[in-house]
Amino acid sequence: MHQGCAAVLCVLAVLGLEVAALGECELARLLQDKLRYEMRLQYMKHNFPIDYTLRVQHEEVLRTANVTRLRDGKVSEASLRYLWFHACSQAVLHILEVLPEKHPSRGYTQELSQLLDALGVEYSGYRQNPPLAMWVQLPANAAPQALCPPVDGIAVAHPLSLQSDVDAVVADLVKQLHSGDSRQKAVRPKALLDNCLKVLRMLFGAHCRWDSA
Ligand SMILES: *[C@@H]1O[C@H](CO)[C@@H](O)[C@H](O)[C@H]1NC(C)=O
Which domain of life is it from (predicted)? Predict the structure, then answer.
């Protein structure tokens, strides 16, 4: 279901998008652009039947209110960005799962998924207990440069070593999010991506020094 990350890096490199060479903030910026209102409206609402919903786990619905609560509980900003990444990736994968091959929203959703996969490489250095590898489908120690055929003129990113511990509360949420056995909830696809974008702005704006003025 989930493509190997190294494979995605290869595809991106071959396409010449150079996405793989970008850092956390550049990738978040690209995601923000892709999640802009007209696109969410077209691809996540107009292209779906009226009132269409999909069933997702409660933990996948990460709202700004959740983040505020977790911040009040002194959860680190890095952990929050990590949680956002997991919630948003799961949401996008769920949307992708319900889209047939030729659906007009498929290409868009796949591009979101590729950007998120590239971001996942940035976060693959995080440690959590029990090991992250249980929940993340990325090859933990994948060396993209070894798996991808060399492509002239395109820098292939090395996973950054962002060694930092994930807060326990976030580790638990991420675990539940991937467990597939907690309570479900019917949500509109656009609402999932609305949350994705709002929380992205909330967490990356200051961190990446985007001019919010
Ligand atoms: C966000 O809060 C809602 C309740 O308001 C809860 O159901 C959901 O699990 C929370 N999500 C996360 C990721 O904490």
Answer: Eukaryota
